[in-house]
Design brief:
Layout (H helix, E strand, L loop, with lengths): L3 H9 L12 H18 L3 H17 L3 H17 L7 H7 L5 H10 L16 H6 L4 H9 L4 H13 L5 H14 L2 H17 L3 H15 L6
Helix pairs in contact: 1-2, 1-4, 2-3, 3-4, 4-5, 4-6, 4-9, 8-9, 9-10, 10-11, 11-12
Length: 225
């Protein structure tokens, strides 16, 4: 499992490419809508993101699918974490009480910081080195983050380390550049502002000025809700 967020859509489309029965419309619709939601959310396009997520939910809920509906809420929680927004995955947890997979449960524990409670074999494999490295040494954690090939997974890992207070300036720079490389405006703005605050605290006026310019450029492109 390379990346949970891709897997979440893949699970909804598990029958694609097979010679079996056609994929039900609700699976195709939900997978398509959630992919559009992720893109819109990371780009900071709030209205479009909300609409796409609602349509994804309508597809799975309309089919009466508890696990698949819960997984959509888990995907939303992961994206919120990537952008350092507060989310305890409560809606997922409530739905998952009646139907949840071991992989979804492990990812939920990962996102909510309960790393000592999860079974690592059910996590996306790229996160296992991060769990081992997250012992308080930011340099080790940063090396583990750098080794995560998928940009969104790397960004989620960085945000969780930040919540655990196991980061340094290099972690923030890595997260910001990961978001910048992908053009993900929402998380990029958050991390640039964190970098600006750190630069101000250490009295680095040059870095502070450069970051202020980047932030101004970015804010001029963000659409209001």
């Amino acid at each position: 499992m390379r990346i949970f967020l891709v897997l979440g859509s893949a699970l909804l489309l598990a029958a694609c490419g097979s010679k079996g029965p056609p994929v039900p419309d609700w699976k195709t619709d939900s997978a398509n809508y959630i992919e559009r939601y992720k893109k819109a959310y990371l780009m900071g396009e709030n209205t479009l993101a909300d609409r796409q997520f609602t349509q994804a939910l309508d597809a799975t809920s309309g089919a009466g699918r508890i696990a698949e509906t819960a997984r959509l809420w888990l995907i939303q929680c992961a994206l919120h974490k990537a952008s350092l927004e507060t989310d305890n995955c409560e809606t997922y947890a409530n739905l998952a009480q009646s139907d949840s997979t071991p992989a979804d449960r492990a990812y939920y524990l990962f996102l909510t910081g309960r790393w000592d409670q999860l079974d690592v074999k059910f996590l996306p494999s790229q996160y296992a080195p991060l769990l081992k490295a997250a012992t308080g040494d930011a340099a080790l954690s940063n090396a583990a983050l750098n080794a995560i090939a998928d940009p969104l997974s790397r960004l989620i890992g960085a945000s969780l380390l930040l919540n655990r207070k196991q980061t340094d300036d290099a972690t923030l720079a890595l997260a910001a550049e990961t978001a910048s490389d992908q053009g993900w405006r929402r998380p990029l703005l958050v991390y640039l502002k964190l970098e600006e605050t750190r630069a101000r605290e250490r009295g680095d006026t040059t870095a502070q000025s450069q970051l202020a310019v980047r932030i101004k450029l970015l804010e001029s492109t963000l659409r209001q809700p």
